[in-house]
Amino acid sequence: MSCSQIRNIDAKKIEDAVAELFVKANHTLSPDAEKSIIDARKCENSEVAKSVLDTLIENLNAAKKFDIPICQDTGMAVVFAEIGQDVHITGGSFETAVTNGVRRAYVDGYLRLSVVNDPLFERKNTNTNTPAVIHTRIVDGDKIKITAAPKGFGSENMSAVKMFNPSASEDDIIDFVVQTVKNAGSKPCPPIVVGVGIGGTFEYAALLAKKALTRDTSDKNADSRYAELECKILDKINLLGIGPQGFGGDTTALAVKINYYPTHIAGLPVAVNINCHVSRHMSKTI
Questions:
Q1: Which helix (H) or strand (E) holds 222?
Q2: In this structure, what DSSP letter does residue 163 have?
Q3: How far apart are CA 33 and CA 3, in angstroms?
Q4: Residue 55 CB contacts under 8 Å (≥ 6 apart), including other chains
Q5: Mean pLDDT across the stretch 7-25?
Q6: Residue 160's pLDDT is what?
Q7: SS3 for 134-186, per residue?
Q8: What does DSSP assign to residue 70?
Q9: pLDDT tens by residue, 129-145
Q10: For residue 98, is pLDDT > 80?
């Protein structure tokens, strides 16, 4: 039996990848998300909503043309990393490399610095947009996949977690998600993308919802039951009539994405993480 060969990856490669991804994610919307906005414009019935969507599309094109951020809120840096168990990181630590990459992206890339050092008392800007929020998984293989997901807080502030009894019905879950969006109204800059996490524990449901926002808007859930549930929730959200930027219309949400996980027999955690129409995420494998 042959032993797995360890692959060395220099920490500088991780730093460079993180720096590149956060600048790119803030300047260019992923093709799937851009297509969702364009498709929504074609299906929208409200003239005001059409006009708003036209403006959003113009903004995306301007960001590409002038190589500037899509949104003035360039977000808190969220990193999802899948690290192969056959990888050995050399020349520094993984977290230091990520921190240096985020600092370079935001300082050298002239992105808005929005992170404060203490959440409650001092609230002094770190002036580097660090530290990042880092979620790591150890996986098979000898590669590292990094997903950069800058998260603005106009939408983040509208998110919610609820601990349901295990007797809760599908309709109860739908109502909770839809009510969360209704409570948010125009604040998260609709049309929004809604990430839903079902299962796990209190904190893991929120992580599931956050990770769901990194799925392509065109992606279909592998489980047909959850794929159907995504469609049901999306339809009900769009019946709210909040519309693009809150001006009314058929397009309140572009997509609903559900990630689920086994949970305890005594509980049913559900988290809703809302993203604005600028659903930013970029990935790279080293």
A1: none
A2: E
A3: 42
A4: none
A5: 98
A6: 98
A7: EEEEEECCCCEEEEECCECHHHHCCCEEEEECCCCCHHHHHHHHHHHHHHHCC
A8: S
A9: 999 999 999 999 999 99
A10: yes
